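Is this the right way to post structure tokens for a design question? Let me know if I should format differently. Anyway, here goes:
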């Protein structure tokens, strides 16, 4: 078990959105901790609350969203109770975020060099000359070819992989304590994906930055994670270290995810698919949210599954599952 200090501790985070049909809960009472030098992956289907969790922590929710309750403690300061100006001083400095679409994150009318050097000026108070020198150095670090000419380029002149490298450079300018990466490789082809992930691993080994990686790609989880949170319909349904969750999944949803992974060279059967649909957030069942899609439903489903929301049952020090089947007799 890691003895590194905890960089971020999230407790009972609940985030809601105002809609025309009433308020809905997108993130429901989640808790986790992130340690120095650790990579924690949040995995799950689209719409399960992964990105909303990160946006809540960063204070970047859209106007319709709000944090209903909970805390996100960063070095003993609760991020959720900070003012906008306090969060602005932290964002891009001690906590950085990489979004899945660099095209919508980079300023289309600013040259790449100006966007990176601006961070040096704002957070590190460097002169123009010094910030330009450090920008060139950062672009080299993220392995951008011909960085001198790339500094003069606009975002639309870069490929997707190159733009994502720029985003990583911007995120790492101030050697942040925490890097939040929201689907950073989704829009990239497999070869570029691997390069970007390796770049993040190399940077982490040098700086011991804690990484919170949000993804739906289990291959990325296997390559990057120390620990994993599996989310379904706004809730954490299983957590644990990556080897335990991959080799010995307990929650029926996690098992179903693992069974849907294609195995290279195996052509003997069709891939398993999870039946049914994710319930709408404004029409949630009274019990377990996965009950109607559960692989155990024909043999082990109980009235508790249908009527009561299960708690997370701790299986050992670093493994738990939100499933009534784990309830002790």
């Amino acid at each position: 078990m890691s003895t590194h200090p905890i960089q971020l501790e999230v407790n009972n985070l609940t985030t809601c959105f105002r809609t025309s049909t009433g308020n809905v809960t997108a993130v429901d009472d989640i808790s986790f901790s992130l340690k120095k030098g650790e990579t924690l992956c949040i995995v799950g289907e689209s719409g399960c609350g992964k990105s909303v969790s990160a946006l809540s922590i960063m204070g970047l929710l859209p106007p319709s969203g709000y944090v209903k309750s909970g805390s996100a403690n960063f070095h003993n300061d609760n991020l959720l109770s900070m003012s906008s100006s306090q969060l602005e001083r932290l964002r891009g400095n001690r906590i950085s975020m990489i979004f899945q679409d660099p095209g919508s994150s980079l300023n289309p009318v600013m040259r790449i060099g100006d966007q990176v050097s601006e961070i040096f000026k704002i957070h590190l108070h460097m002169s123009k000359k010094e910030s330009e020198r450090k920008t060139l150095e950062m672009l080299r670090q993220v392995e951008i070819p011909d960085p001198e000419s790339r500094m003069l380029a606009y975002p639309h002149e870069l490929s997707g992989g190159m733009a994502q490298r720029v985003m990583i450079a911007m995120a790492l300018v101030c050697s942040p304590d925490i890097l939040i990466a929201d689907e950073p490789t989704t829009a990239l082809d497999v070869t570029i994906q691997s390069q970007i992930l390796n770049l993040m691993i190399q940077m982490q080994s040098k700086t011991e930055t804690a990484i919170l990686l949000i993804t739906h790609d289990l291959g990325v989880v296997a390559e990057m994670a120390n620990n994993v949170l599996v989310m379904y319909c706004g809730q954490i349904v299983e957590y644990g270290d990556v080897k335990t969750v991959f080799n010995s999944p307990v929650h029926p949803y996690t098992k179903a995810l693992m069974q849907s992974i294609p195995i290279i060279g195996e052509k003997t059967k069709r891939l398993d698919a999870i039946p049914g649909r994710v319930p709408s957030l404004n029409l949630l069942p009274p019990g377990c949210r996965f009950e109607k899609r559960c692989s155990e439903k024909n043999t082990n489903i109980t009235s508790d599954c249908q009527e009561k929301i299960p708690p997370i049952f701790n299986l050992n020090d670093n493994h738990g599952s939100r499933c009534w089947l784990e309830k002790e007799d």
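Format looks fine. Someone answered above. Worth noting: DSSP finds twelve helices and twelve strands in the chain. The chain has a mean pLDDT of 89.
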